[in-house]
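User: Predict Putative glutamate--cysteine ligase 2's structure from this.
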Amino acid sequence: MAVRTLGVEEEFLLVDPDSGEPRAVGSTVLRRAGSADLTAELQAQQVETATDPCRDLGDLLGEIRIRRGEAARAARAAGVEAVPLGTPPVPAEPHVSSDARYRAMVERFGRTGSEQLTCACHVHVAVGSDDEAVGALDRIRPWLAVLLALSVNSPFWRGTDTGYAGFRTQVWGRWPSAGPTGPHGSAAAYRELTETLLGTDTLLDEGMLYFDARVSAHHPTLEVRVADVCREPTDAVLVAALTRALVETAAREWADGVPADPVRVEILRLAAWRASRSGLDEELLHPHTWRPAPADEVVRALVDHVGPALREAGDLDTVRELWQALAARRPGATHQRRAFAQGGDLRSVVRDALAARD
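Assistant:
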């Protein structure tokens, strides 16, 4: 069986290189991007990159580094820096991009939209059909909070330490369509839910289905959206590799008629909250028992769960190495707090993220 392709989208803050304050120059950065594939986001203080589809993890790492370099050069040409931070450490007032859709979102959703200055990492994994996509979607749900825990990179919000390792999830969760979903059962049921949600005239369009994972409306992929933008490129590769293995494992279970775990959305919300609160530093909910367990034990359980898929893709050794490195180094939230403690101000947090970006 061919290894599925995967791609990574990353969102970056645009900040003043001296003060660390976000700057609303997204349109200028896009003009400076030339042939680079950068896109606008909701707020003018951010941009998004996207890799080409890859099969090999080494190629994916190269793509991520290329895209980060392109974003960095375009940002510098506009007098700012593009930094991988899930939320802005330095206080900022978001400025909505000029795009008519984004302005309509803010008009409809008020402060929930106007305050959304957050940066995530989205992983796209190729699927053969909508039926396979929904079959996999139903079966990856228990493990998505673990991916969040691996990526947490947003402890600061509006100039203060929130007490969370991944506060972006808390901010993002204010959207009425965000978060985990229940099992759908079929592609037809997924489409019916989509039509019902859009029929409420609450969401502007299908792009506002902000589920933790969703069937892409524009690509033949399953899109997993739980992770913070990662501090380092290798962390993004780890999240992506585990995501692909999760989708492959779940697709095989679907094809074999293995029923999806019926775990309720309420429990998944608790699992996500714990991952957002403490990342890898405390206990996570173990998907085998839904009881607290040490975070490293839960990550190892995820690797074991997708082990056959990782091995067949040739990714197992790489994932183990990347996990060992992250376990020793810790995710971005730890580095942000350490930089703040050592530097004494939030500008130090931004400088630390810049040092690890490429």
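The mean pLDDT is 96.
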